[in-house]
Amino acid sequence: MGVGLLKWDPFNAFKNVYSTCLLIFSVVIVMGLIGTSQTGLSSQTSSAVAYIVCWAALIWLTSVEGTQGSFVGLAPINPEIYKDTHPISYMCNKVTTVGDNLDRYLMGRQFMVCCIVFIINMSAGPAGDVELWGLPEGVKSAFFGVGL
């Protein structure tokens, strides 16, 4: 079997379905906690503020992580290859590959990721003991009690 992104076998199919279901379940219960004012931010302000802050921080985090992957991945590649097809990437890469700019960006990015994760935890993390939709104690302990 060749190497590719769309490799299919029963184990990978199970893994993909299982992880997608866990992701959806996790998003639903976190949004449920925010909606019932059981997170740090939603208990002190309104649920709408906590929703907006949570999703804005998540989108910001994905942007920061994606940018890091792009900068690091494009650093060793000759920029002339994508100069005409991806001019914005070319301009960004010209700035990041000069001197030690990439190293400085990566150090600053680490600090920014810590701040963003703190904001996400503040807006979406459970505030103390929570009760949501009559979930069993084991589920609550696994999803809310371990501090992840």
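(the above was protein one; protein two follows)
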Amino acid sequence: GSAPGDSGVGVGLERSSADNTITVVKVPPGGACGLAGFLCVGDILVGVEGKDIRGMACREIAPLLIGRTGTRVSMSLLRNGAAVSVSVVRMSAVDAEVLPKAVAYRKSLPSSSSSSAPAPAAAAAAAPAAA
């Protein structure tokens, strides 16, 4: 589990048994990644904080994504074969009443080069792990 005052990045991951890749299968809109808009379903997670996570189980990766609320975590991804690096602030999920205001605020911000890569095709999810 996580300690009081800790949060994750709000992303569902699934490990492929075929090639051991860790794929983003869920990006809830009220979580840190959903609000930041940097991760897409279908992205392949290859690193967390500079650590190569390829071949690791989702349960081993989740603790790397969880940390003190308000701190940043960097992630290395593959999106449509291109390397993408993102940094997300860990936070608790946003309440449903606050979410529309937060999404409107995010949409009002200038585009980030981190999110300029085209979104990948949706990936099927059987039982995603939450982090």
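Reviewer note on protein two: Confidence is low (pLDDT under 50) at residues 113-129.
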